[in-house]
Amino acid sequence: MSAPDLAALTGVRSGKRSYYRAFLRSDERMQQAVRAMDSISRALVRTVEGPRALLEEVARAAAVHLAAEWTILALADGHLPGARPRFIVVGHDGRVVGDEEELPGVVRRELGAIRAGHATGAPGPARWVRVPMTLESVMIGSLVGLHGLADDPEPGDLSVLRILANEAAVALHTSEQYQAGLAQHRRAQRLYDEVGARERDLEQRTRELRQAEERLLVARQRELVDHERHRIARELHDSVTQFVLSAGMSVEIARGETEDLGPAGERITELLGTAKQLTQDAVEQLRRAIYALHQPHRDTVSSLPELLHEVAEHHRPHLDVSVRVEGEVCPMPAEAKHDIARAVGEALFNVAIHAEASQAVLRLRYRKHELYVGVADDGCGDPGLLARKLRLERGASVDGRHRGLANIETRIGELGGTVAFRRSHLGGVRVELRVPLPVVDRGRGTICGLIEDPQQPLEGMDP
Fold first, then answer.
1. What are the pLDDT digits (tens) for 379-413?
2. DSSP reduced 3-state for 205
3. Over 262-281, what HEC string results?
4. In contact, 157 and 65? CB cutoff 8 Å
5. DSSP state of 50
6. Omega of the bond leading into 81 within 30 degrees of 0 (cis)
7. What ranges make up the beta strands (E) of 316-451?
8. Distance, CA of 361 to CA of 425 (rounded, Å)
């Protein structure tokens, strides 16, 4: 049996029958290939840096494997238009050169040939090693190196370069898809922002339209009210004032006729003097009322807190009234605001006239689904007595001057709200008005009953 052929076993031949040097060179190439794969594997997991880090590692690995002076990894024009970067150039020292002006002419010519799609490259040194980058059998660019090996690259070297080129092709393809997805995401985000801006603009325009409608409604109401005010002012001036003046003149004439009655007429003269003074006061009050009726209303639409401040101001000469507002003020129809303000005014009037109170607290709370209005005082009122009085006012036909509580309940009930009486922390009574939000149409609300135990304060409720 013949001795085994060493060349057949190692795949290395030598004219000098010496295989050790070739083995070392083959082993060195193998180690270089392993190091190249290792550097690429490390670059694959650096996802934060994007495809550029992987492409630079591919170019550096190819440069090390070929001992190249220059290594070029580039895409041909027209392929993967969205992929970035379009080319990577690595010098002999491993530095990436990003400016084409810094490249020598032979490298720029080779880069231009790759961009033009020439598989054979540009005329130049024979030491250029070129491996195409392909996707689905289509050449999209090249991995090129100006090698510095002692011998020409072997088939194993070209296999390593093809692996590197394929990794680069996949990375560039992924980069293009990422850029396309990123652009699509940006477009979607821009459209979303535009929709949000249009929605906010529509909300602003809707608010402005509601305010304009409210101003128009108030203007129409003001026009009717002003017409009626002027009519009343004319009636007061042309009839009532003249009658009062005539009465004063008659009183003055009567005073003159009582001077001859002696001591008996002194009492009559005194009473007539009082009557004359009253007629003069009445004329002065009428003139003030006529002047006030002729004054134009302000043009701005009052909010409910503003209306309640005005109501409180009317009672402050006789009662120390403080107003507290909590929560975000929400819009509501003008009629609803005025009904609530009138109900509060009626409650404050009852406090000032009947409760013997010195102070009152008016609290307005805006909640998510409810508007709470509380009128509390430090007077001598009794919640139970008020509840019974309200039941009497509901069921009997009483004098219009004694329907204050029923009027409050009617106004709030038409808004779908409720009225209740409790003992105030100030010592007197707290009238509680609760109106659901948003406000229902007038006349559709229901009037609920009174609280079972009116003497018991509500837990955690301020005056």
1. 999 999 999 988 887 765 444 445 678 889 988 99
2. helix
3. CCHHHHHHHHHHHHHHHHHH
4. yes
5. -
6. no
7. 320-326, 359-366, 370-377, 418-423, 429-436
8. 11
